[in-house]
Design a protein that fits this description.
The chain is α/β, with parallel strands linked by helices. Helix content is 27%, strand content 26%. The chain is built from 6 helices and 13 strands.
């Protein structure tokens, strides 16, 4: 089972840090954000990775190489311009294959057990579902949440709204209608599938941080140096 790391974004909220360093290569606790993520994926058994790149792409490719130093094998999906999440995944489909795959944002730090996603992929392979999302409690900077979770089904709205963690499993067919190279938001693809009951989900109650600003990067750095991370 392959996993894709989304690393193509400009990181506008991280400026000026990302003017010269791509966001995935910013450090917390003495390691880059993407190295923390790759380590967690590798420990869960995901050693075939696709990384999409655009902004300062060469720096990411040089830092990670083929992934062997981190115990994985990496191939790159290089975008001329960032295609947003849905478009970036669609562009990388030739590298991801025909089986369901995991996609993770490179700017999240989370202690979710990625090995749990194998069961979700099996359910997607059966053809009844198009996606499986990991949701978390709404952080202070995003109090309204993204989607609702009722049982194991995700919907666009409902009484219990949670935040999308940036961790999901997807069936390739979800992206089949996107022209390769076109921009597309992931939510635009997911919402029609939610209406049909084809998106499952689960709530993660452990540590999760959207490391989207210099302040949150500094907070994560403090936590990791204090031994509070995992």
């Amino acid at each position: 089972m392959k996993a894709m790391i989304l690393a193509a974004g400009r990181g506008e909220r991280m400026r000026p840090l990302t003017d010269s360093v791509p966001k995935p290569l910013l450090e917390a606790g003495g390691r880059t954000l993407i190295a923390h993520l790759i380590d967690r994926l590798a420990r869960a058994g995901f050693d075939e990775l696709v990384v999409n790149v655009s902004h300062l792409a060469g720096a990411i490719e040089q830092a990670l190489g083929d992934g062997s130093a981190l115990g994985v094998h990496i191939v790159y999906s290089r975008e001329e311009q960032a295609l947003e999440t849905g478009g970036g995944i669609a562009y990388a489909l030739p590298l991801l294959g025909r089986a369901p795959f995991v996609v993770v944002n490179s700017d999240v730090y989370c202690d979710f057990d990625m090995a749990r996603l194998a069961a979700a992929a099996t359910a997607l392979e059966a053809g009844m579902l198009s996606a499986h999302l990991v949701l978390v409690d709404n952080p202070p900077h995003h109090p309204a949440g993204d989607f609702a979770l009722a049982g194991d089904r995700v919907s666009e709205d409902g009484p219990r709204r949670l935040t999308f963690s940036g961790i999901g499993v997807y069936a390739p067919r979800l992206f089949a209608g996107i022209e390769r190279g076109a921009k597309c938001q992931l939510a635009a693809l997911l919402k029609p599938e939610m209406a049909l009951g084809r998106v499952s989900g689960e709530r993660h109650a452990g540590r999760w941080m959207d490391v989207g600003t210099p302040q949150r990067l500094a907070e994560l750095d403090r936590l990791l140096k204090a031994g509070a991370g995992s």
